[in-house]
Design brief:
There is one protein chain. It is built from 1 helix and 7 strands. The protein is an alpha/beta fold. It has a single domain, classed as Cupredoxins -  blue copper proteins (Immunoglobulin-like, Sandwich), CATH 2.60.40. The strands form 2 sheets. Strands 2-1-4-5 form a 4-stranded mixed beta sheet, with no helix packed on it. The mean pLDDT is 90. It binds copper (II) ion (CU).
Length: 109
């Protein structure tokens, strides 16, 4: 009987670890009327930020210009784009085609 408990115990451990991996936090930023909403968002390290273009016609992007990163793909209405933020810091961004559209992601431990 001694060996039979190992399987269930390992399975329980697997479920625990799988549950932790699935507990990824996603924060949402909407894009409407040529604005990021909210324009400033504060998240914990490891958070996935998802931008969703809620416009009817206008396409937008997310560009972290100061970091020298490539512009996101253009988001057509209904499209979304994600970035995971692992390190604490202040990440300013703007929209590629609309430089006046600005936002900030603040990552705080
Ligand atoms: Cu835009």
């Amino acid at each position: 009987m001694g060996g039979t408990a190992t399987g269930p115990a390992l399975f329980a451990l697997f479920l625990l670890l799988a549950g932790q991996a699935a507990a990824e936090t996603v924060a949402h930023v909407a894009i409407n009327r040529n604005l990021f909403d909210p324009a400033r968002i504060t998240v914990s390290p490891g958070t996935v930020v998802e931008w969703l273009n809620g416009e009817k016609r206008t396409s937008h992007s997310v560009l972290f210009e100061k970091e020298g990163l490539a512009e996101s793909e253009r988001m057509l209405p209904g499209d979304s784009w994600q970035r995971t933020f692992d390190k604490p810091g202040i990440y300013e961004y703007r929209c590629g085609p609309h430089p006046e559209m600005r936002g900030v992601v603040e990552v705080v431990p």
